[in-house]
Amino acid sequence: MTGWRARWYEIIFEADTPKGKLFDVVLLIAILGSLLAIVLESVESIYNKYGTIFQMVEWIFTVIFTLEYILRVAVVRNPRYYIFSFYGIIDLLSILPTYLAIVLSGAHYFMAIRSIRLIRVFRILKMVRFLGEANMLSNALKASRIKITVFIVVVMCAVFIMGTVMYLVEGRENGFTSIPVSIYWCIVTLTTVGYGDIAPQTTLGQMIASVIMILGYGIIAVPTGIVTSEIARANQTKADENKKLHHHRCPACNKGIIDPEANFCPNCGNQL
Fold first, then answer.
1. Residue 50 to residues 54, 56, 61, 240: CA-CA distances in angstroms?
2. Nearest in space to 211 (alpha carbons), one of 166, 241, 255
3. Cα–Cα distance, 77 to 74 (Å, whole number)
4. Which backbone phi and psi does 248 adopt, to 5 degrees?
5. Torsion angles phi and psi, residue 256, rounded to 5
6. Least confident range of 64-78, 181-195, 214-228
7. What secondary structure does DSSP assign to 86-151, as a single string?
8. What pLDDT sits at residue 178?
9. Mean pLDDT of the chain
């Protein structure tokens, strides 16, 4: 890749160069500006005064992001790879709402998805270690997905059963007008939210509600423990890999040296 494509690729995709960093900083400022415009536009008193200005600003940002997206597709060696990548999809979704708003009222508020593009701040500020931790969390969630799925299915079954029981115990006269309403109450109670719009009146119903409330605290802890276990396992795996990476041998005694920055062998004293 040579010529203008190579120069623009370096500016757009390389944050290590001054021009590349400037491009990303300007882009982040534009993203923040567009998000601020979306937030202020939702305030009726402000929109009534500056509605036309907000629409103009919205289209200006959209045109800028559209040109940026086209430029990204044009300079990459394999456009298909970028278009279907995580960033490529987010970049596309961030500009579509404004165009959809032409035919769908209120669609432009979906531009809030542009906030995901702020992830690029990690690359600009060289916060790669944060990306590593984010990947570790993502891998832990993926590793836990089967256990969490089973857990959610069990909880759903329990909510359905307990909701049905409460419908039979309390009845319509106490606000439990249907099984779906009773299931809704059970979910709210089990998650310890407790809106208070429906409450059991009978002694048996209150006893069942007490059991559900106590179970709620235990249920909340289960997925946390599953994910924490996977994170601990990932940390241990990473530590083992680092230990193997930094473990080298002394040329004199052929024994392992864990510290990669050691100036001498701790086993025989040989100068390294």
1. 6, 10, 17, 59
2. 166
3. 8
4. -130, 175
5. -70, 145
6. 214-228
7. HHHHHHHHTTHHHHHTTTSTTGGGGGGGGGGGGGHHHHHTT-HHHHHHHHHHHHHHHHHHHHHHHH
8. 92
9. 80
